[in-house]
Write a structure and sequence with these properties.
This protein is 0% helix and 50% strand. The chain is mainly beta.
Length: 123
């Protein structure tokens, strides 16, 4: 079956760095785009970053631009999120998402979602 598995979350001090991974498997068609979302405690889910699988075109939410870097390894079917200069407000559950069909850029919706990984930034 389809699986998107996030990993790499944890506890880090403000100003520190963390690298998240998302491994995709079982998708019926070729990945077109993947993205990262996050949901802080008590708040709505928000967009973080997106990447096209073929050309590695990227797009970032305003709150993380200049601090986070999205990337992908096509051979490993894995997406990454390098998070630098972390702030307490970055604390959230981070979710991986994937599309296998064409959509608007950046996509507004995704077909598949991972289970999430917790990122906690202490002040």
């Amino acid at each position: 079956q389809v699986q998107l598995v996030e990993s790499g979350g944890g506890l880090v001090q403000a100003g520190g760095s963390l690298r998240l991974s998302c491994a995709a498997s079982g998708l019926p068609f070729t990945i077109r785009t993947m993205g990262w979302f996050r949901q802080p405690p008590g708040k709505e889910r928000e967009f973080v970053a997106a990447i096209t699988w073929s050309a590695s075109i990227t797009y970032y939410g305003d709150s993380v631009k200049g601090r986070f870097t999205i990337s992908r390894d096509k051979a490993k079917n894995t997406m990454y999120l390098q998070m630098n200069s972390l702030k307490p407000e970055d604390t959230a559950v981070y979710y991986c998402a994937a599309n296998t069909r064409h959509s608007t850029w950046p996509p507004r919706t995704y077909e598949y979602w991972g289970q999430g990984t917790q990122v906690t930034v202490s002040s």
